[in-house]
Amino acid sequence: MFRNRRIEKLLKILIIFVFAFFVILICMLRQQSDTENDNTIERIPRQNESEVETALSTASKSLKKLIKCKNKIQKAENISSGKFFIFKNYKIASKHFDCYDSITYVTHSDFTFLNNVVPLLQKWNGPLSLAIYAPGSDFTAALEGIFYLQNCHKRSYLVKKFTTFHLFFDESLLNVSQINHMPMKCSESKKYLEISQRQTFRTKNKLSYPINTARNLARSASITHFVLVSDIELYPNPQFINEFLEMIFNNENLINHKNVFVLPVFEIVQNQELPNTKYELQQLYLDNKIHWFHKQICLSCHLIPFHELWLIHTKQQMQIHSSVKRQAPFSNWEPIFVGTNADPWYDERLSWEGKSDKMTQAYIMCVLDYNFNVLSNGFLIHKPGIKTVAESARPELEDLNHKIIKEIILPEIRFLYGENENCEMYT
Ligand SMILES: *[C@@H]1O[C@H](CO)[C@@H](O)[C@H](O)[C@H]1NC(C)=O
Ligand SMILES: *[C@@H]1O[C@H](CO)[C@@H](O)[C@H](O)[C@H]1NC(C)=O
Ligand SMILES: *[C@@H]1O[C@H](CO)[C@@H](O)[C@H](O)[C@H]1NC(C)=O
């Protein structure tokens, strides 16, 4: 009796030890795979991470068969384009995605907009490809800003995990000592994120913002099949990636390169928390705290088809709410959409200051007969604060963009893509 008890006790202890040993072993293996993830660029075999990210897993595994895309390896490249020096994949996100696994948020900025990166990632939780225009001493500032986001911010892990940074500037402004600048201290680098646009090298030297070069750079560097080319101050609703991929999974026939998927854009009053769901958005709209984007500047540039019906639509599942061609009455429409790298590129001759910078792409998509499918449950909200007309008026450069579009780009497009009498180039 006594012996048996002792053996029983010993056995129990032994079992606990063996169990503890395995727990520690598993933890160690986990940690090792995490650090590998952070340091290597190349494809790492997926360590059951799909089991953790449950919502996505089922859809994405089967999406592999539906979306016949090729995985891409990210590697740093220094490119001289003739006009610009480009540091493509200057800092690469630590988390690798398969091309069918997610959507890349593709965007651009100068260093003064870097404050948007963390709030954006908190909503997006997926890959971000960001091209930063950094001429002259703005390059130093951009390096400091990136350093701060990657190493000092309390949510640095989000930045490191998801963000791939690209930098570019005019070749005529090359200054080697600025390129080799090495940020060292969080307290120093924080200051750069507080500099206003008026104090940048770009503003002081009256350089126009090469928005379309930035868009093309960031889009071409994305490693997923689907891309959302957007502006860095537009925050998506959380869960968008999963809900979108699930919709695609359930409707294979949506996978067609002539389909793009539009997210309606709203603006929200100052000091208001952003809605996370369509239901919350509807409530805020009723309270007059949310408006259609650019209500005061160019409503028709953003207003979606059947917008009133969209607002009262309340199905839980992501659907196509409406589908239109970019013809009248939508010839003036500048929608933001999920597309792919097969879509037409942005014309790099157009500056941001001159506006209409996406119009030529939209026009080509009209000629090519694209379908613009408006999503029922996806949306973008501009960072709080309503834009007014005065902030966005840049008349001389608007005239220049219009002239370039009319006299140079439009004849080219007609030559390259043919004509479609239903398409209008609104400028
Ligand atoms: C991953 O999960 C599968 C099934 O759940 C299991 O068979 C496999 O051993 C796991 N792999 C690792 C590395 O833990
Ligand atoms: C690109 O240039 C920078 C600055 O000279 C250098 O530090 C970096 O190693 C270069 N990267 C590649 C891929 O050549
Ligand atoms: C190059 O950059 C350094 C550091 O910002 C600056 O001190 C120097 O004046 C610059 N040189 C030129 C030619 O602009």
UniProtKB/TrEMBL annotation:
Keywords: Membrane, Transmembrane, Transmembrane helix
Top-level taxon of the source organism: Eukaryota
Segments crossing the lipid bilayer: 12-31
Protein name, UniProt field: N-acetyllactosaminide beta-1,3-N-acetylglucosaminyltransferase
Organism: Polypedilum vanderplanki (Sleeping chironomid midge)
